[in-house]
Amino acid sequence: MVQQTITRTGAPKRGFFRELAHIYRHGDGATKLSFLLMGVGCIRRGQILKGLMYLACQVLFIWYIIEFAWQYLSKLNTLGTTGMQRVWSEERQLFVRTPGDNSLLILLFSVMSLLLLAAFIGLWRASLRSCYKAQVLSQQGKKLPTFAEDLRTLGNERFHMTLLTMPSLMVIAFTVLPTVFMVLLAFTNFDANHQPPGNMFTWVGLENFRNLFGAKPMMGNTFAKVLGWTFIWAVIATFSNYILGMLVAIFINNRGIKLKGMWRTIFVITIAVPQFVSLMLMSQILHEQGPLNSLLMQLGFVEQPVKFLTDITSARITVLVVNLWVGIPYTMLITSGILMNIPKDLYESASIDGASPMRMFFSITLPYMLFVTTPYLITAFVGNINNFNVIFLLTRGGPLVTEYYQAGKTDLLVTWLYRLTVDRQDYSLASTIGIFVFLISAGLSLIVFNLSGSSRREEEFQ
Amino acid sequence: MKRFLSLALVMVLALSAALPALAADPVKLKVWGSQDDQEMLKEMVAAYNEANKDNPVEVEFGVVGEPDARQRYLEDPEAAADIFAFPNDQILDLVKAGALLEITHNREAIEAANVPGSVEAATVGEFLYAYPMTADNGYFLFYDKSVINDEQVQTLDGMLAAADAAGKKVLMDVSDGWYIASFFLGAGGTLGIQDGVQTCDFNNERGVQVGEAIKAFTAHNAFMTGDNAIITGGMGDTIAAAVTGAWNAIAIQEKLGENYAATKLPTFTLGDEQVQMGSFGGYKLMGVNALTQYPEAAMALGEWLTNEANQLKRFEVRQLGPSNIKVGESDAVKANVALSALAAQSQYATSQKEVLGNYWLHAEAFGATMEAKDYSKDIKTLLDEMVAGITAP
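ok -> structure tokens follow
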């Protein structure tokens, strides 16, 4: 039998417009009036306080729009037309500036108002539902809940709503609002030449995206190459950490090693030092005139200082190696726990059959580990695509090259984005790149997770 | 009774409207300065209030170094200081963003009192946008007298040979658009602005020759690159000569002691002629926020903070080279080795006003390629790519 989700009122719960149409058709005069004036239906049925509160919300919202939001919303399509005016004042002998349209504030407050509008529509629908419910209950002759009883349900049956209000507001204000705002910036021309309050910026549609994909050859070339390096980096960084961390865990786990606890502790201590500190130290140590080069020259191993971080190939290898130093303790810990869970009889039966340790590793350990840690690998891969710290603190994205647009040979998309934002105030381009980073990360996560989900249905993995 | 009450009410209303006009509104200004300048700024403001007892100002100080001024201003223009100091390469960005108030009070007096280079750096279009404060933000050459003599220091090749013979280095941060420009500008290269886009001819025939000269320089055994920390740490020990500015003068003097010397930049070999290395002229300017609520008071205070007496004070306390002509001619300033070297170099200095933001990173990229001795592409290609990046709209 098909389960229809129906409230006790008989109105369908699914379908925004279907529900509203149902309420309109079956509502009486007071309920129909509630479409225009929130809460009238409740007042008519005796739920005076509740109805008045709905009405107050509506009045407050309309006042907010007229007094505050309309001046920004009305300019949303142009993002401002009259800039800052400079007027010569003869008696004061100076220029007086009257602020004009501030594109940044227009965009920000418009987005905020649109979100508030969405919330208000939700509230409007809630008021209609409660008016209709009151009507149905009174038609059926049942008692209507008083205001005090309604409040009590918020503490009991609807406690989940009370609890979730604050976090939802926080998420919307500090995550949803900034994200929508930043995404919209990618469709404007907000850069160093269009800085409010002196200048305005405006919508340019998909121009930034076209530039990134080749309309401006240097930018397109840079984007493609930096994207390529980001992928290479993410793949090598993730898998090198994983494999080597696993090997370290296996070595420590070996029956012949004494003082297993001490070895593990040594590795874990590197986690205790903040990554920030150790990376900055590393960049100083590996500097061309730094201690490591001085030591190598004094010992006679090299004649010229080794360009760890300034030569292109060396820089790339160096960041990968330093990333190993930072990441192996984590992967070692994760794989240690899983290793100890592999049933020992698998190894015993394999050694009876005459398998070498290498064979055992590839046939038993590796498949088991990969099966268990696939979600971790996905998160690590996506995390490495955005691994800002290691690259920025070691090389700042350098060495810079002439063929790139404001980017260097170890730049990831995020570090390039950072330089565009902070050094060049090229916010619109940076926002476009940010959108791509999001699409790549989210897309990869979804694809790989679905693929591994299909492999989860395997019962046997031998 | 009713009439009395209504009369009292009217009187109270009238008084409350009149009182704010009676009490003098204290003028509140916010001033930004670097950490080292805070003490000195406080003394200067106190002296200003002494001299202007009928128009005192209440000043709130903020610690914002000059290089950060533009960034901090653009973060929130309305919350920014009313008066702040900034280096002259930021003036174009600030004027474009509408950040600076045109200086219209006592403009002729200010322009007459300060060196022409500093006034030119503070003028954009037909308006003066800031008060010139210091004129020592350019660069020149410091060297160790015991390693390089006066004759060798005239040419770059001479310096390199002398340093190499003593097993020491000549330091220049070629991977910095500011320094590498000296080669190109000295050889006659130009940077300009046309229709809001940078024009740059560093990749013409002469520019390619200059590129080859830079390549030879960075390939030399005695060449070294580094930043301020390396200069002040290694001067005298491993470094015989360094291209840097007056901000390192005190530290270098301590390291070199008796062998401390400074002079203008040398000439370098271009083909078969010797060409004098140019430089960028650097000045620190004090600007007034265009959105300030008290423009008259802010302009008066800005003028005071950069007048002759206070520029002299700035030189005495912080060793900062003045832009004021009279102070610059005083014996104390003339005796300062670093500042007279800077004065000698300023004849060959170019203004940074024609340099837009895109120039720096691309020039740095070329310099970094040279420092890394990466010769996979030839000079012409590298210069073409550099200019393509610089002149991108």
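Chain A touches chain B through 38 residues (CB under 8 Å).
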